[in-house]
Amino acid sequence: MKRDALSPANWTPRTWAMAVGLAILALLPGYVELTGATFYLDLASRLMILGIAAVSLNLILGHGGMISFGHAAYLGIGAYSVGIPAYYEIHNGFIQIPIAVACSALFALITGAICLRTKGVYFIMITMAFTQMVFFAFVSIEEYGGDDGLVIEMRSEFAGLFDIEDATRLYYFIFASLLATLYLVHRITRSRFGMVIEGARGNERRMHAIGYDTYRYRLVCYVIAGAICGFAGALLGNFTNFISPEMMDWTASGELIFMVVLGGTGTLFGPILGAAAFVLLEEWLSAITIYWHFLFGALLILVVLFWRGGLYGLVDWIGRAAWRKRS
Amino acid sequence: MDWTLFVTQLLNGLQLGVLLFLLASGLTLIFGIMDFVNLAHGSLYMVGAYLCATLAQVTDSFVLGVILALPLTALVGLAVEFVVIRRLYARDHLDHVLATFGLILCFDAAVHFLWGAEGMAIRLPAVLDGRVEILPGIVFPTFRLLIISVGLLVALGLYLVVTRTRAGMLIRAGASNRTMVSALGVDIQTLFTLVFAAGAAMAGLAGMMIAPITEASIGMGNEIIIVAFVVIIIGGIGSIKGAFLAAVLVGLIDTMGRSFLDTLLKVFISDQNAETAAPALSAMLIYVLMAAILAFQPQGLFPPKGR
Q1: Is residue B241 part of a domain?
Q2: Which of A137, A251, A305 sits opposite B284 (nearest CB)?
Q3: Secondary structure of chain A in the HEC alphabet?
Q4: CB contact under 8 A, A293 and B105
Q5: How far is CA A169 from the centre of its chain?
Q6: How far is CA A190 from the centre of its chain?
Q7: Count: domains in chain A
Q8: Hey, is B133 helix, strand or coil?
Q9: What is the pTM (predicted TM-score) of this model?
Q10: What pLDDT digit, counting tens, does each position of B55-64 carry?
């Protein structure tokens, strides 16, 4: 049975959606090469970076039930971990990216140790407040541009082995990172560790009773999610060639949550769909009117009120409908 | 240390404190009774400021502007409660946070549409625009003194309403056990709608009070609302007393930190290092305070009773 699940004939609609999505992303640079529409390459790069961030947020929010309203902090920390070394003319990605991951993990460890002592709405607000703390800290450090941000003159280069200065090469670097993240998160959620995290979301007291120290499991999960998002931040810094505290404004954290919920919480591929929908909607709506935030906000409210399953739920629904027709 | 500067900053801190209280008291009541997280509370602060600015322009009087804008802000609050928030009570916190985040986007865009991208200044009457000598050698802007007194008066009024009236008794009862109050035949929905409108009016009042100093601008509520959240976390969500003490504490620490931290640091480290570190550290001060308090009291200084 297990081997059968791998053959396309037995794929679920979800697997199909994921395969088609990834295939489009993999082939996009070819299309751009033919048509010269580099705009789409930029759009898809941004989409994938935010997708990685949303996948990491989903690990704690969807699987762990920890509603962090401060996940953008790691995007900022990751981006500054590229920007600050670059400011001192250290462009080696083998130094920058480990710094990004380590700093994010450390920040997640310190703040997580405090945040996870609290529950419910306290947790939401305290994660938000800690991110605001980092935001203001960077706003007031004049050396690194303060409010105005910092231009990254040169993208990361990997000890002469390869660089990501070229847009297509950067694109495939991001794409590979996305695949690696999806695989990592897939393995984590299917592991014993992932089961404990899910269990603690479902019924923490029971997990306690059978002998799990849920606080520690949650903290580890929180740190992993922070580290992944820090990595996404390093990609974002490289992609935009510019960093500013704006990246970790609390509204950015809200947008990440929106992506996760829009795509479907607790699913592997949902957050990527959510990030895609978010980026495309943003492009599309902002072309219609300068007051597009209104439409965006209204859409957000409608999604929350009437459409809980997210886009991934929609995929299932279409799949079921098609299946009914066939039989 | 400069004595006059110290007293002036103490008063400035108090002024920030009472503003935070005006915001935080509504938030904490709304959360206390309905278990509802309202991120859009800062938008009502902004709406209050804009309404007041327009009405002050039309009537040519700041005081009239405030008097007219207060009920209007409460009406906006009622409308929001009726259209969106009412449908969300039964949902979880994630839905509250997301939907009210959507509301913020809507409010900011709507204000942009109605009032334009430029901020709106409010001109104060001459009586309020001056300075007074409060202690020998210490002059302080009259209007900031007015903010402090208005804030303290509202705090006192709120205290009396909550502790001495029947409505206040229901609010307290609702905060400790909503289901029980409802089972005893109290229309908790109406009670909550009223509390929401009152919270909106208080948030709007805070916006009206700050607008003559900073002018009304888009997104003005989005920063201060986080500080208001810090206040209610420190104070204990649901507690008015906690909100008041925490608001004053946060207001004082933030203001004093920004003005005196560099002087304090210079005692321990070199002048140059102190000048670089002080702005970043003082910006982080209230969050460190919050972390320190939560490390010992995960539910804040005055945790809610009965849950």
Answers
A1: yes
A2: A137
A3: CCCHHHCHHHCCHHHHHHHHHHHHHHHHHHHHHHHCCHHHHHHHHHHHHHHHHHHHHHHHHHHCCCCCCCCHHHHHHHHHHHHHHHHCCCCEHHHHHHHHHHHHHHHHHHHHHHHCCCCHHHHHHHHHHHHHHHHHHHHHCHHHCHHHCEECCCCCEECCCEECCCHHHHHHHHHHHHHHHHHHHHHHHHCHHHHHHHHHHHCHHHHHHCCCCHHHHHHHHHHHHHHHHHHHHHHHHHHHCEECHHHHCHHHHHHHHHHHHHHCCCCCCHHHHHHHHHHHHHHHHHHHCCCHHHHHHHHHHHHHHHCCCHHHHHHHHHHHHHHHHHC
A4: yes
A5: 21
A6: 19
A7: 1
A8: strand
A9: 0.87
A10: 988 888 888 8
The predicted complex's ipTM stands at 0.83
> To the nearest whole angstrom, how far is the Cα of B35 from the nearest Cα of chain A?
9
Assigned token pair, B23: 């915001």
Contact B101 A257 (CB under 8 A): yes
Q: Render each residue's pLDDT in chain A as its tens digit; 327 residues.
A: 445 556 676 677 777 878 888 888 888 888 888 887 788 888 999 999 999 999 999 999 989 889 999 999 999 999 999 989 888 888 888 888 999 999 999 999 999 998 888 888 888 888 988 898 899 888 888 788 778 888 887 888 877 777 777 888 889 999 999 999 999 999 999 999 999 998 888 888 888 888 888 899 999 999 999 999 999 999 999 998 888 888 888 889 999 999 998 888 888 888 999 999 999 998 888 888 888 888 888 988 988 888 777 787 777 777 777 777 665
Q: Would the CB atoms of A126 and B97 count as touching at under 8 Å?
A: no
Q: Is residue A72 part of a domain?
A: yes
Q: Which tokens go with A314?
A: 């929609």
Number of residues that make up chain A: 327
Burial annotation B30-59 (CB, 10 A radius, 16+ → b, else e): bbbbbbbbbbbbbbbbbbbbbbbbbbbeee
Query: Side chain identity at A327, as an amino acid letter?
Result: S
Distances, alpha carbon B231 to alpha carbons A55, A248, B63, B77, B206, in Å:
31, 21, 29, 22, 15
Domain count, chain B: 1
Q: What CATH number should be reported for the domain holding residue B72?
A: 1.10.3470
**C-beta atoms of A291 and B294 within 8 A:** no
- pLDDT digits 0-9 by tens, B92-140: 888 888 899 999 999 999 999 999 888 888 888 877 787 887 777 778 8
Instruction: State the best of B20, B107, B229, B286 to mutate against chain A, taking most chain A CBs within 10 Å.
Output: B229
Range of the domain at B20: 8-130+140-296
Structural domain including A183 reads 21-249
Q: Which residues contact B128 (CB under 8 A, 6 or more apart)?
A: B62, B142, B143, B146
CA distance B226 to chain A (A): 7
Residue B306 lies in a domain: no
